[in-house]
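Collaboration report, partner site 2.

Our partner group contributed sequences for two proteins of shared interest, and the home lab folded both. The records are reproduced in the order in which they were received, starting with the first partner submission.
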Amino acid sequence: MDIRLEEAGSHGRYSVVVEGHTSEMTYSRSSSQLIIIDHTAVPDALRGRGIGQALAAHAIEEARKGGWKIIPLCPFMRAQTHRHPEWQDVIQA
């Protein structure tokens, strides 16, 4: 899955296009060490295919590589962090 990053100022998003449909996870960067994930959207046509999960896992890996923490404000991302205790190293409550 080709997940892309777009950043403009303090706002960013991870996105992926599958079968002509775009899924995204958006965030705000509050500092060089902290992002707040505020929204995840997967079109109905792609639900149940693990795309939201892939976006979440990608954000976690990027945080690990970049040395920053994530505040999961988005309900989907928050739920994923509860399902994946191994992600707690980059989650800030």
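Second partner submission, folded after the first:
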Amino acid sequence: MQSKSGSDDGMMAELNVTPLVDVMLVLLVIFIVTAPMIVPQSMKVNLPKTQAVAQQDQAKNAQLVVEASGQLTFQGNAINDQQLASELKQQSSTPQFQLQVSADKAVPYGRVAEIMAIAQANGVTKMSFVSVPAKGK
């Protein structure tokens, strides 16, 4: 029978994992900090060179002005929503048609959204918003 004594002549059977965990946490922190700084490498592609070609068919622009009161002016004529819908339906049949909307900055967003919905429902596929560039600061 063996008796327990104060001297420990045998080998230690346990593994101390605390330093391993510390090293792994430090590596994790380093990875988390450096990962956002890694910039994805771009591929070098030799694109073909061509000469500039003028666009054959010019867009047929139609001007729609939305005043601060919400009143619509289409191509210089005052118009209501129903008349706008019929005009857009007629003109949107040509593929070059583009609606340019100039809305006052005081017009509520809901009114502009209504106009966009009318245009989409009547076949307008190209729409742009006209703005004035801000003055330099």
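Feedback sent to the partner group on the second submission included the following. Helices lie at 18-34, 81-91, 109-121. Strands lie at 60-66, 72-74, 77-79, 97-103, 127-129.
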